[in-house]
Design a protein that fits this description.
Blueprint: E1 7-11, H1 16-27, E2 31-36, H2 39-49, E3 56-60, H3 66-80, E4 85-88, H4 104-132, E5 135-140, H5 144-147, H6 153-173, E6 178-185, H7 213-224, E7 235-238
Parallel strand pairs: 1-2, 1-4, 2-3, 4-5, 5-6, 6-7
Helix pairs in contact: 1-7, 3-4, 4-6
The structure holds nicotinamide-adenine-dinucleotide.
């Protein structure tokens, strides 16, 4: 798996799956554009990645801020020339409440970040991908978007939307060289844990454990690679054979 001369933009890159993906892409030769709201952690990951490549740009940017997203992508394109790979990973998910307790403002916040953030990032890179006849877009969804999680109705709805967005967009752009897929993790180890290979016991999978951040990054990088050249319009679950739906 080689990403020489390729540039990958990853949102939510400061911790967890996004951070592990950034490291994996860097280890395999990609230039990187890392986007997150957390400036301090972005600077930490930049330092970490500089072991593998100096070609890293970081942008403190809220993906739900359309103008800021376009400005960051424009600046990144002026440095690297193009974005070849987009990983839409940033999302809000830490909220457990019955449907009746979720306010309309909370719904809008989740929709703005988890759906519109993906729309803005995708809109900002897609024209050049189409012009170049090459692109890889990977949306990080969730098993919540496939099965629905009680007490996370708004989160589940946004992740379900991502899966259908993936399938619909793939039908528009695959024949133009832009492959679009999503991954749906089951339980993942807490992203606050800096060890990318860390996992915990979990009753939710037949494997009896959570996934690690790096296991998710491995799938993301595979889908972004030339080895995955015949895969588009798919949602791939990475859930250790999920037990409860
Ligand atoms: N952790 C899990 O158990 C799990 C399970 C299934 C799916 N997922 C999905 O995986 C993805 C990554 O989750 P994670 O748990 O690795 O990381 P996380 O949710 O802990 O962190 C995500 C990163 O996104 C950033 N972020 C949040 N809002 C943002 C915004 N508006 N703009 C820019 N950056 C923003 C955060 O600062 C953080 O660095 C998410 O899309 C999540 O829905 C996670």
């Amino acid at each position: 798996m080689k990403f020489t001369d390729k540039t990958a933009l990853i949102t939510g890159a400061a911790v967890g799956i996004g951070r592990a993906s950034a490291i994996k892409f860097a280890q395999n030769g990609a230039n990187l554009v890392l986007v997150d709201i957390d400036k301090e952690k972005l600077e930490d990951i930049k330092k970490e990645i500089e072991t593998y490549t100096k070609n890293v740009l970081i942008f403190q940017c809220d993906v739900s801020d359309e103008e800021r997203v376009y400005a960051a992508v424009k600046e990144a394109e002026s440095v690297f020339g193009k974005i070849d790979i987009l990983i839409n990973n940033a999302a809000l998910w830490r909220c457990r409440a019955p449907f009746t307790d979720i306010s309309s403002d909370e719904w809008r916040k989740f929709i703005d970040v988890n759906i519109m953030g993906v729309v803005y990032c995708t809109k900002s890179v897609l024209p050049k991908m189409l012009e170049n006849g090459y692109g890889r877009i990977i949306n990080v969804s969730s098993v919540a978007g496939v099965y629905g999680n009680a007490n996370m109705v708004h989160y589940s709805a946004t992740k379900g939307a991502l899966i259908s967005m993936t399938k619909a967009l793939a039908k528009e752009v695959t024949d133009k060289g832009v492959l679009v897929n999503s991954i749906s993790p089951g339980s993942v180890s807490p992203s606050e844990n800096g060890d990318m290979d860390y996992y915990e016991k979990s009753e939710l999978s037949f494997m009896g454990r959570t996934s690690t951040d790096m296991e998710n990054a491995n799938l993301i990088c595979f889908l972004a690679s030339d080895e995955a050249s015949y895969i588009s319009g798919q949602n791939i679950q990475i859930d250790g054979c999920r037990k409860k739906q």
